[in-house]
Amino acid sequence: MTLEQLAALLAQAEFHKVLKVEPLSADPTGKVTLFLRFDSAYTIFKAKGNYHGGVIASLVDVAGAMACSVVQGHPTPTANLRVDYLKTPANCDLFADGEARRVGKTIGVADVTIRDSEGAVYALGRGTFIPADPNPAIFRN
Amino acid sequence: MTLEQLAALLAQAEFHKVLKVEPLSADPTGKVTLFLRFDSAYTIFKAKGNYHGGVIASLVDVAGAMACSVVQGHPTPTANLRVDYLKTPANCDLFADGEARRVGKTIGVADVTIRDSEGAVYALGRGTFIPADPNPAIFRN
Amino acid sequence: MTLEQLAALLAQAEFHKVLKVEPLSADPTGKVTLFLRFDSAYTIFKAKGNYHGGVIASLVDVAGAMACSVVQGHPTPTANLRVDYLKTPANCDLFADGEARRVGKTIGVADVTIRDSEGAVYALGRGTFIPADPNPAIFRN
Amino acid sequence: MTLEQLAALLAQAEFHKVLKVEPLSADPTGKVTLFLRFDSAYTIFKAKGNYHGGVIASLVDVAGAMACSVVQGHPTPTANLRVDYLKTPANCDLFADGEARRVGKTIGVADVTIRDSEGAVYALGRGTFIPADPNPAIFRN
Questions:
Q1: What is the mean pLDDT of residues C107-111?
Q2: ipTM of this complex
Q3: What is the pTM of this model?
């Protein structure tokens, strides 16, 4: 999957009009970097600018799935995900680096690091994704 | 924490203007039920009405934290969460039943079930929450 | 898979000569109960009788896999597992209640509760298991 | 915690007479490497030499806890752990590289990689550990 195809896939999802995640890079060996520009809509407190945990979890979901998707060349639905929150990002853009650790016939496993532009790490994610179906039902419009 | 206090806490978060989650019940022994009315903004495809995984994960985050918060009487930030997606809900309102399984001095553990009004289960969540601080920094405006 | 077949499957594993886990019940809808008689070999401190976390995790692995196996009628290898330790059991026999929450074509999800004979819960487990292959390579002697 | 102290701590546990894990290195910034010499007692099938998932999970437990312990200078009990099995190791010694990703006042988070001597990765682990108590009850003999 090329960066253009990844961008097109991300643009499809209705929820991404809220979570305005943009792909920065896509490596078919299983690496993607996504970008989320800070928006106070993502926070707990507007004045504080601290990100809501659900926004971080959503980024992990998308970056993990995309890391497997670029290997497969088609969407790979999420079977499960886990997020460890190390510290709360505030008032900054976020980057999600997704890396497929293994994509087999049945499942894929991907890691996700949530960081800022200077490399400070805010959360660690990992998940299981389903690579099997080239045209997963949940991605058929 | 009473239902009114829980509702007030949820209403504080900026992101909950997007994820319009409402509390239905709060039991100080550690049980809460949250409600999310279907909105096409939460979907992958508007026409299909299928929920985005990030929305489900956000519900798990909030319901798990709230299940521990009602025990403690104050917000309990999320340390980690995990979500297992069993099937994709579509075109339906969602309920998140959170249940604290143990709230100790250092950490709390809560389970979350994501279901519809008829009891069909779509996702299972579990997480670790930090009960210690009666006034957690990330919840101070 | 009947209780006898489950017992035979468990008896095969070399590691179960160390972790002497015994099946107590097997329901083909996806429920199993396993039994582990206390042995000081499972502890951190013999004098204290407190179970090592690895023993608990091993029980979760086996009970989760078996809960999916009884549905499928054949072994279902573990893709991932998670264990939340609520309190440390000591000097008591343990029971592992495994319950398949969903077994689909590609993956199964099972919950495991680690408890004693009086129902005190010590740990919560959950995992993903691979149901696809009726004769998984790792179970072929 | 020095390598000698880590070795002494590991030698205390009764279960480590079964799971004969040895420390190879300990860096007080939060890195440890543990070694497990192959033993057919750890397998599913002796003839096949394939490791039981519980043995891998036990290694993740110990290596994650030790990665946080070397930072703290005292044992850090496991709150939860997760293991993703990528492929099954067989007939080989195993190494567990533990790395603390963050050790705060309340919890620590550590990553564990299970590999062989040539760097082939078999499993990925992550867990939450409790750093607070310099003399945790479960480690008091």
A1: 97
A2: 0.95
A3: 0.96
